[in-house]
Task: structure prediction
Amino acid sequence: MLAAATAPTRPHVADSGGSGGLDTHQKWQHTGGGAGSGGGAATDDSSEAITVVDAAGRAVLPGFVDSHTHLVFAGDRSAEFEARMAGRRYEAGGIRSTVAATRAASDDELRARLAGFVDELLAQGTTTFEVKSGYGLTVADEERAVRLAREVTPEVTFLGAHVVPAEYAEDPDAYVDLVVGPMLEACAPHARWIDVFCETGAFTPEQSRRVLEAGAARGLGVRVHGNQLGPGGGVRLAVALDAASVDHCTHLDDADVAALAGSSTVATLLPGVEFSTREPYPDARRLLDAGVTVALASDCNPGSSFTSSLPLCIAVAVRDMGMTVDEAVWAATAGGAAALRRTDVGVIRPGARADLVLLDAPSVTHLAYRPGVPLIAGVWKDGTRRA
Ligand code: NIG
Ligand code: FE
Result:
């Protein structure tokens, strides 16, 4: 596989103007060894070929790692977005309209849409991404979602416990029985992770624990959607179960922050959600000052956050969440990798995957300084140019 020839002193940010910058004629060369990934296969043709890339004074950074997306879906919820901009609050129940559209779609429709999102991610510098199920909510539809997701990424998450589907509205515990039984059995072979939406209007902490423990017993890693719409037990449950990540973390009390600080659970913040629900942003500064590992992810989904842009998330995190540029870029690269318990991505160092982004800018500061401007000049995944 391809890897950077030299390790920058700021391993997460290679900035052409700084001490950790790549030389204009930085070489990317074959190192031969595997990277010990948690996921997909490395490419290694064992040739001695060296590709010389002239960055011409522009910044190079690791490919972004988006540890939270929901990309297997059909339908459109732009009307719901417009209603929110006119003053309506976001509610978990909107998920059910995407469930109906997704169930009605063919495999090929879902596959084509997913392929479009993969291109969209790469064009914006994301070289590793997680994809969740959660818009099927039957055994067959959830199995289909994780199977299609597995065609595009090894980081697949079974989220059968996204919301209680309408047909189980009168008996949510019967739906949990289905999730921990036949649905998990059908989905686990395609998945690396299990997730649950632990929130008022979705699943209680007790139901969430059942789902996560069943997944862990089946060999899946644990992740949690928690504390998005209000305070609750999601963060503490995630820490108790040594989840790789608890995502959203918008409404935290001091005990939540202390629990995260004393754990190896990453707090993954999703600024696209508050951007498109017009809720207050999570307080990244409070978490960082307490010593919590923070990741940034897109949460790309048709309801609460229909953006796949980590540059946008970085810009918002710097402007409105108290993060420095370096912290935000780290959170969208190495932080995302930590949230996926990966060490082979999100960093530029010998032996890591050559997943690299070249910016049409002299420093990574421009990601926040020039919001909305397409600054991605080149993207390499496993050493191969992809955009
Ligand atoms: O992460 N919070 C739960 N699930 C998604 C929203 C999904 C939807 O609204 O369709 C989220 O924000
Ligand atoms: Fe989500």
